[in-house]
Amino acid sequence: MADYVDACRRELGGAELPAATSVFVGGGTPSLLPPHMLATLIGDVRVTDDAEVTVECNPDDISVGALEAYRDAGVNRISIGVQSTVPHVLSALGRAHDPATVRRAAHAVGDARIASYNVDLVYGAAGESVDDWRRSIADVLALEPVPAHISAYGLTVEAGTPLAADPARHPDDDDQATKYELADDALASAGLANYEISNWARPGHECRHNTLYWSGGNYRGIGCAAHSHESGRRWWNIRTPDRYIAAVERGESTEAGSEVLDPETRLLETLQLELRTRSGVDAGALDQSDPALEGLVERCDGRLVLTRRGRLMANEVAMRLRSRVPAT
Predict the structure, then answer these.
(1) Is 70:34 a contact under the CB 8 Å cutoff?
(2) Which of 21, 149, 150, 217 could form a disulfide with 201 if both were Cys (CB 3.0 to 4.6 A apart)?
(3) Does residue 181 sit in the same domain as residue 256?
(4) Among 41-50, 52-61, 109-118, 153-162, where is mean pLDDT lowest?
């Protein structure tokens, strides 16, 4: 752990970066690091006065002492990987915590005076009933303090994983659609508005860091497998920690690969991401006379925004986006 943190600090120190408007420490389980190590790394990042600084945490790693160390280093937002509050669903997802651990984690966030926190949920695991999912939503909304932001993701099957090799555990599209609508109704009733397909927040608590991704902005990733983007060029770091550490120690580049997007591809990707948000896309990005779009998009302030049915069919709508390269 110490070698990895040192390598990240060295990569960060060698990068000429402007002050960050947001920082997100994630991509795995950063809360497994001793709090002082993580706090030292975060403290090396130059940020604006109003920067949003988030750390992802497992519920069972959270303590008031750890959160206070994060807070003193500038962290003002925590994202807790809850996934479910139903024991047999947690077991199906391979998670070790229990509902009581989640409640203790939420109390610790309040006691440590962290300004805001998010809860991540996942629906569609094998054996999860609609009532199980309803219980998870209710339990999260009953936490003290109540989370100001909730992310709810449908379980997806990634190639090469144990889940992919076991078709009996694959999620059902209709089941996931029912659970999505249930979540949207419950969260909206609790005052959390949907602002991206899988994200709901109270006003002013939308995740600034993710919004940067969705708007096609520039970002810099630090650490193994971290991805970066600047003005149409994307690159990614060496994937495994041992090879990443070795490259840094040898003074070599940590870049494993890159690509440069042509203007049309970059515009299309930006539209695909914008489509997922409540601000939608420019009206000219879709053929509004296309019968396949009926009921999936609606016009709002001169832009086209997904309806709730459209959110369930977002990939279908995205396939109909048309990129337009501005004349030069």
Answers:
(1) no
(2) 149
(3) no
(4) 153-162
Same domain for 173 and 82, yes or no, is yes
Q: Model's pTM, two decimal places?
A: 0.95
315 token code pair: 């990939």
Identify the burial level of 256 via C-beta atoms within 10 angstroms of its C-beta, where 0-12 means exposed, 13-18 middle and 19 or more buried.
middle
* pLDDT score at 203: 97
Domain for residue 12, yes or no?
no
Within-domain flag for 304: yes
Tokens 């992802």 locate to 56
Which stretches within 254-328 are classed as H helix? 263-275, 308-312, 314-318
pLDDT tens digit sequence for 133-156: 999 999 999 999 999 999 999 999
Domain around 229: 220-260
- 251 vs 325: CA distance, rounded Å: 40
Long-range CB contact pairs, 225-233, < 8 A, 24+: 225/27, 226/27, 232/260, 232/261, 232/262, 232/263, 232/266, 233/258, 233/259, 233/260, 233/261
DSSP 224-268: TT-EEEETTEEEEE-SSHHHHHHHHHTT---EEEEEE--HHHHHH
Q: Which of 120, 122, 184, 117 is nearest to 145 (CA)?
A: 117
User: What pLDDT shows up at residue 163?
Assistant: 87
Helix then strand count (H, E) for the chain reads 12, 13
Residue 3 lies in a domain: no
164 occurs within a structural domain: yes
Q: Are 235 and 227 in contact (CB under 8 A)?
A: yes
> What integer pLDDT is reported at residue 28 of this predicted model?
74
State whether 84 and 175 are in the same domain. yes
Structure tokens at 14: 């060698």
Domains in the chain, number: 3
Could you give the CA distance from residue 269 to residue 132 in angstroms, rounded to a whole number?
A: 36
SS3 131: helix
